[in-house]
Write a structure and sequence with these properties.
Blueprint lengths: L14 E5 L3 E7 L14 E7 L1 H11 L3 E9 L2 H12 L3 E8 L5 E7 L5 E6 L8 H6 L1 H5 L3 E4 L5 H13 L3 E4 L9 H4 L4 E5 H8 L6 H13 L4 E5 L5 E5 L2 E5 L12 H14 L4 H15 L12 H11 L4
Parallel strand pairs: 1-4, 1-8, 2-6, 4-5, 8-9, 9-10, 10-11
Antiparallel strand pairs: 2-3, 6-7, 11-12, 12-13
Keywords: ATP-binding, Carbohydrate metabolism, Cytoplasm, Kinase, Magnesium, Metal-binding, Nucleotide-binding, Potassium, Transferase
Function: Catalyzes the phosphorylation of ribose at O-5 in a reaction requiring ATP and magnesium. The resulting D-ribose-5-phosphate can then be used either for sythesis of nucleotides, histidine, and tryptophan, or as a component of the pentose phosphate pathway.
EC number: 2.7.1.15
Length: 321
């Protein structure tokens, strides 16, 4: 495989704005998921920084982007640790508020021996992200190549961020997770809609369980206004749906240990590749390799690879998943 080269001059980084969530992840590893009312003895416990917004920001930063973050944390130890971690990644957090009105968001993540996970989120301070705060960050969004958003923050604030990006000619990558009802007008402002099978089904009304149903769901989402739909399907790869039709880009075969943050890594890596000027399929492929590396490691941000690691794997595999 020929690794694509950035359109940016040496030393210049694409600028990405992320509006989203910041959490502290409490990760429990056990042989299997507990049933209702059952106690299962775990094998490991980790406290790691997370949150879909923060994960995607870290993924973009490790792929070489200049990342600016808009969000909220609590005025507590978890918030301090989360902001310190983002700063270590070189992420600009001027637009992150710290408030005593709520605790920093927390996610309880349960991972079984097959690498599958279940997650419970207490959003906390993430719900304090207001439309006014987003509007105060308009210049940050306007001077970025791409805006990245998810739905662990208030919907009205995310909608306003997308509206600002659209008005300023900034491309939008939207990962509507966790899934929430979204109107067509909002979807029509999205350049790249990134969804998994569950999110695609909830937003399209089409149950996704194979390639044919994935295409139908993507068609429905495009009919609602999304310009390009990227439907991530784990080991089955990614369905790319746009004006030029539908195609599947295969997953990269690896031994999965923990699937936490694989989707977030995909979003961050994809956005940076697009901002560098890569063709759509090449950007999806690079993001697939980044996500593949993530699932071979435990945790969220701790598992996200650097660009050098992604390029090494791509070169090693010579483009063969």
């Amino acid at each position: 495989m020929t690794v694509q080269v950035s359109k940016y001059p040496l030393g210049q980084r694409p600028r990405i704005a992320v509006v989203g969530s910041i959490n502290m992840d409490l990760v429990f590893r056990s042989p299997r998921m507990p049933a209702i009312g059952e106690t299962v003895k775990g094998t490991e416990f980790f406290q790691l920084p997370g949150g879909k917004g923060a994960n995607q920001a870290v993924a973009a930063a490790r792929q070489g982007a200049e990342v600016h973050f808009v969000g909220a944390v609590g005025a507590d130890l978890f918030g301090e640790q989360a902001l310190s971690g983002l700063a270590e990644e070189g992420i600009v957090t001027d637009q992150v508020i710290s408030s005593s009105a709520a605790a920093t968001g927390v996610a309880g993540i349960f991972v079984d021996d097959d690498g599958a996970n279940s997650i419970v989120i207490a959003p906390g301070a993430n719900e304090l992200l207001t439309v006014a705060q987003v509007e105060a960050a308009e210049a940050v969004i306007a001077h970025s190549a791409f805006l990245v958003c998810q739905l662990e923050s208030p919907l009205d604030s995310v909608r306003r961020a997308i509206g600002i990006a659209r008005a300023q000619g900034v491309q939008v990558v939207f990962n509507p997770a966790p899934a929430h009802p979204i109107d067509d007008a909002m979807l029509a402002q999205v350049d790249y809609l990134v969804v998994n099978e569950t999110e695609a089904a909830q937003l399209s009304g089409v149950t996704v369980d194979d390639a044919d149903s994935a295409v139908k769901a993507a068609e429905a989402l495009r009919a609602r206004g999304a310009a390009v739909v990227l439907l991530t399907m784990g080991e089955q790869g990614v369905l790319v749906a746009g004006v030029d039709g539908f195609r599947f880009i295969p997953a990269v075969k690896v031994e999965a240990i923990d699937t936490t943050a694989a989707g977030d890594t995909f979003v961050g890596a994809f956005t940076v590749a697009m901002a560098r000027g890569f063709a759509l399929d090449a950007a999806v492929t690079e993001a697939q390799y980044a996500a593949a590396l993530t699932v071979t490691r435990l945790g969220a941000q701790s598992a996200i690879p650097t660009r050098d690691e992604v390029i090494h794997l791509m070169t090693e595999r010579r483009g063969q998943p």
